[in-house]
């Protein structure tokens, strides 16, 4: 710890111990790596202003103690600035990981990769999303659309912070949007944009058939969640199509692909020990939708019911305290804490004192630190037969569902389809994102999760349609 402040840490008696105790009492480990590095820079400047190593080399013990107490007091004031104090609070409340990764024995297998720079060569896209003001929408740059596989087909990746403009279907049928989150500035007032860890895609036709299409939403979390979700998106799209059981048994193929992707991720150079992603995947074949889900992203269908609509869930959230999830985790040796208040998450912990990890879901791809205590990548697969009463599909990360119930989302999206607007699905998806942004601003202020959604108009298949 002392080395972060002084390069002479090994030469100054007592420095390491005192600075380590100060770091621990401040809770520096609760900061993200980026925040921690910046705070250490500020602390180093403060250390030098207070005399640097002279704090520990002063011969008079009482003077030495007084000097360090003054330095400690100002360090605590620096750490207590709203933006830094808020970081720990937001992690405890909303982030998928409640506790910062503890680098130690459980992480030893990653040491060589870090030392050799492997973490910087992972196959991922890291960038900050362009600004989007829901109160004054501006045209976003068109994303560079890349095919998700060797075969030619219509494929659109929901790029973080961009509207998907090259899609398999027009705006009256399909709407997609992914919008980055924000967090308080590291120092001072204001907010900064987060790297968007959400990913999503729509691929049609799929599996060499105009009657097949694929819809995916991924919500990465942890320090390298963007790399994980990027890897998982590409792997699932390609490997599912190649699975030998996809034609005859799509449910079997989906489960196997999720599990195989989890293993591929663990063997890759994408760091996934303390990072992972949710995954909700809808595979449509003619009038059947197979939905595989692991985590707390969600898919629902709006069904016409008289003059209104009702909701049919295609997935359930895998909260750690949900029936079956808690029992499996506890049986495997893990610990589950209940939500501290309504609207917040239960958590999975490695230790009885609930200090290590604190993952906010019972299933995910990645998150290898908690695989041994019952957090699994196996998805639940549900089957839904599309009827004439089925109106549209909504898929989204928990950035939407955190403050928007299923029924409210259906009512909002339904208004656009009822209007007969030319780009009903596209406009409905944007409006859903706008509402989620407003809810986060009203309720959480300076913090907002990444938000990604897909809205798809449904219709029963016929020989001349590929919807």
From TrEMBL:
InterPro entries: PP2C, PPM-type-like_dom_sf, PPM-type_phosphatase-like_dom. Pfam families: PP2C. It comes from the Eukaryota. CDD domains: PP2Cc (cd00143). Residues 179-458 form the PPM-type phosphatase domain. Residues 96-150 are annotated as: Disordered. Residues 115-131 have a biased composition (Basic and acidic residues). This is Protein serine/threonine phosphatase. It comes from Aureococcus anophagefferens.
């Amino acid at each position: 710890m002392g080395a972060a402040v002084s390069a002479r840490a090994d030469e100054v008696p007592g420095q390491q111990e005192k600075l380590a105790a100060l770091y621990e009492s401040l809770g520096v480990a609760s900061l993200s790596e980026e925040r921690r590095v910046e705070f250490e820079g500020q602390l180093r400047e403060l250390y030098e202003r207070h005399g640097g190593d002279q704090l520990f080399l002063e011969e008079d013990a009482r003077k030495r103690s007084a000097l360090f107490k003054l330095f400690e007091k100002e360090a605590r004031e620096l750490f207590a600035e709203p933006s830094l104090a808020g970081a720990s609070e937001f992690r405890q409340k909303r982030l998928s990981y409640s506790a910062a990764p503890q680098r130690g024995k459980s992480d030893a297998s990653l040491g060589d990769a870090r030392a050799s720079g492997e973490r910087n060569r992972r196959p991922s896209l890291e960038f900050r999303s362009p600004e989007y003001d829901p109160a004054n929408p501006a045209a976003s740059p068109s994303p560079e659309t890349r095919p998700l596989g060797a075969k030619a087909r219509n494929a659109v990746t929901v790029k973080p912070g961009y509207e998907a403009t090259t899609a398999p279907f027009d705006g009256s049928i399909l709407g997609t949007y992914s919008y980055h989150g924000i967090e308080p500035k590291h120092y001072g007032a204001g907010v900064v944009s987060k790297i968007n860890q959400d990913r999503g895609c729509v691929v049609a036709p799929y599996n060499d058939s105009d009657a097949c299409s694929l819809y995916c939403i991924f919500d990465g979390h942890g320090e390298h969640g963007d790399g994980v979700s990027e890897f998982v998106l590409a792997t699932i799209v390609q490997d599912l199509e190649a699975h030998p059981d996809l034609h005859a048994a799509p449910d079997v193929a989906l489960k196997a692909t999720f599990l195989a992707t989890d293993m591929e991720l663990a063997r890759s150079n994408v760091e996934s020990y303390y990072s992972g992603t949710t995954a909700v995947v809808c595979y449509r074949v003619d009038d059947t939708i197979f939905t595989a889900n692991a985590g707390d992203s969600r898919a629902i269908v709006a069904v016409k019911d008289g003059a209104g609509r009702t909701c049919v869930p295609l997935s359930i959230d895998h909260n750690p305290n949900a029936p079956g999830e808690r029992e499996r985790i506890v049986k495997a040796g893990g610990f589950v804490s209940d939500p501290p208040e309504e609207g917040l998450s239960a958590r999975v912990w490695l230790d009885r004192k609930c200090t290590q990890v604190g993952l906010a879901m019972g299933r995910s791809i990645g998150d290898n630190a908690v695989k041994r205590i019952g957090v699994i990548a196996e998805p639940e697969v549900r089957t839904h037969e599309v009827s004439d009463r089925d109106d549209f599909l909504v898929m989204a990360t928990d950035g939407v569902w955190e403050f928007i119930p299923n029924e409210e989302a259906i009512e909002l999206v339904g208004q656009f389809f009822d209007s007969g607007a030319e780009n009903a699905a596209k406009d409905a998806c944007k409006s859903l994102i706008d509402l989620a942004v407003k809810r986060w601003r009203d309720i959480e202020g300076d913090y907002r999760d990444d938000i990604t959604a897909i809205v798809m108009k449904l219709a029963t298949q016929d020989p001349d349609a590929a919807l």
